[in-house]
Amino acid sequence: MNDIIAAQRRYFNSGATRNTDFRRRMLARLEEAVRRHEAELLAALKTDLNKTVFEGYETELALVLSELGEARRGLDRWSRPRRVPTPLSQFPSRGFVYPEPYGTALIMSPWNYPVQLTLCPLAAAMAAGCTAVVKPSAYAPAASAALARLLGETFSRHYIAVVEGGREENAALLDQKFDYIFFTGGTTVAREVMAKAAKHLTPVSLELGGKSPCIVDETANIKVAAKRLAFGKFLNAGQTCVAPDYLLVHREVKNTLVAYMRRYLQLFYGKKPLENPDYPKIINEKHFLRLKGLMENQHILVGGDDNGTDKIAPTLLDAVSPDAPVMQEEIFGPILPILTYATLEEAIRFVKAREKPLALYLFTTDRTTEKRVLQ
User: Fold this and answer.
1) What pLDDT is recorded for position 300?
2) CA dihedral 83, 87, 92, 96 (to 10 degrees)
């Protein structure tokens, strides 16, 4: 790792990556490689998470290709110097801001969207003119190996390098001095990343999850809300950092919403989701057992069954206590707790009393409610 990072630093210091034409060519090369390896990447996603070709393309490859296209289009605008006013104390003078790359970046990606959440930040690093060391998650070994082959065939290691492995490799990488670290994952590892980065004063971006609420008020189009919840929550078996983590629904429309959700869950995943060959799986036994534990002693409205190894049916929990274990951590699985509220202020107080989430969803047709929640 010392040799890889030293080589990348030398290459960066040569100035080769600063040229915008070079960056554009490299982004185009990566796009070409993604298209060339499309079948391999989709097969890896099927192996690791049982994602279908459609789901793998829609939620991973399509977003990567979109990001690469946007980076190429925005490159000149993002990188050009821009004029800024200067203070009177500097008169007479002209001021400019020159965007410049940080240097050698470390990108640590998660297992739930292993292709998208590796290659999208990599596209940003390349567009900025950085070199990068990429560390895919060991929990998605097929995707990790596919990414290592793709990037290894496409770029020299002194520009883009892949390090595979688990905790030992993570720790060794974090002991190195990088110029920027981009981490996507959970809070436990994020704390370790920040602590290690602090020793070198390395700037860090953390893309974490949290308990993202979904509020459905009494004016909402309940049918639309149910359909979108059934899709957005249970996509990738709920293993999505921006998935709704719990549902706050007005007590007057709760029963109607649940009835529609039953209908759409059956429509999307079948009467027996566990027998649906296209239904994604839980990444490993550790997470499977954790999710089963969160459902213990809960009132299950829909689902709750599992195959004993790696699949849990889409599940709705009713009358959930705010103090229940399922409300104390990010679920990251196909389980949706349902809580009711009587007034909007009550719902807002409930959300604000908890850690700030990554996302919040609101279904309403009332502009006043919309404005109140957004503010």
Assistant:
1) 96
2) -20
